[in-house]
Design a protein that fits this description.
alpha+beta; 65% helix; 297 residues
């Protein structure tokens, strides 16, 4: 700036000594010089700004590279630690393998026997599942045949239920017997005949006949009490199934339950009527069922 001031002063001094044309030329040259100087200053400022940006950018990239480098160094350290742990583990495994080689010699037979037992248990489980499936299939066929055979009989007189894989045929006492009697009515014969036909078609099933009473005490010349009545009624049904309808007696069992296995409470006449019943319970023969579990080779 001092040089520019000197130049202006020199031009001013010369203006008094030079012509007007030369003075104007000098002014024009001075103006051009000022413009060139401004442009140079602008470029210098731009360069400084660009330099500042480059410095900042370099600092940022340098920081990121340093951060990445630190992270990679951390990963390298972690991998080195893992490798060191694996080496120690490998050495431990080698030591244990040496021990196991001794154990395996003494324990191989025990391990083999254990595997044989597990295989045998697995076979038994499969056999049990197969036996249960066969039993369920037999019971389903039996129920379908019974319901088809007894389709015309009132549900108040005969009711068929399946409980825990066992078939229960419940016969009302008013259909089978007169009051306090163990003599089977003539009209009950047709129902027993239909049941017997299905039973004879399924000779691989056992039959349990149970007599039930209500809780009203009774006795007569022929019957001592409810125990006696329930047992005699069950026996009457078994005898008729055997004598009239040729059901194999070795398949049947008769029993009395008296009042001690009621279907409902004995609090009213309707409940007591439901409890006075004879049940024919059909279940698989245990020996045949066990044969299913242990088939002969």
């Amino acid at each position: 700036m001092k040089k520019l001031s000197y130049l202006v002063l020199a031009v001013t001094l010369m203006a008094s000594c030079v012509s007007s044309k030369k003075y104007k030329d000098l002014e024009a040259r001075m103006s051009e010089t000022e413009m060139s100087l401004q442009k140079c200053n602008q470029k210098l400022s731009d360069c400084e700004n660009e330099k500042s940006k480059l410095v900042d950018d370099c600092k940022m990239k340098t920081g990121k590279l340093e951060s990445d480098l630190a992270a990679k160094e951390g990963k390298v350290k972690s991998l080195e630690d893992q490798m060191d742990m694996l080496r120690k583990t490998n050495n431990n495994l080698l030591d244990r393998l040496a021990d196991l080689s001794i154990v395996s010699k003494s324990g191989a037979e025990s391990i083999r026997k254990t595997l044989d037992v597990l295989n045998e248990k697995d076979k038994q489980i499969n056999a049990l599942n197969k036996a249960m499936a066969q039993k369920d299939s037999m019971m389903l066929t039996l129920v379908l045949n019974l319901k088809r055979s007894l389709a015309g009989v009132s549900s108040d007189d005969v009711n068929i239920e399946v409980k825990q894989g066992v078939v229960f045929i419940s016969l009302s006492d008013k259909m089978l017997f007169r009051t306090a009697s163990a003599v089977i009515n003539d009209n009950a014969g047709k129902v027993l005949e239909k049941i017997a036909k299905v039973l004879n078609d399924h000779k691989d099933l056992n039959i349990l006949v149970e007599g039930h009473t209500d809780n009203v005490p009774m006795s007569s010349e022929c019957v001592a009490d409810n125990w006696d009545l329930s047992a005699k009624r069950a026996t009457s049904v078994v005898r008729q199934l055997q004598a009239r309808y040729k059901v194999e007696p070795s398949r049947m069992t008769a029993g009395g339950r008296s009042e001690y296995a009621p279907k409902v409470a004995n609090t009213n006449a309707e409940g007591r009527q439901k409890n006075r019943r004879t049940e024919i319970i059909i279940l698989p023969k245990l020996d045949q069922f066990f044969d299913l579990l242990n088939p002969r080779s």
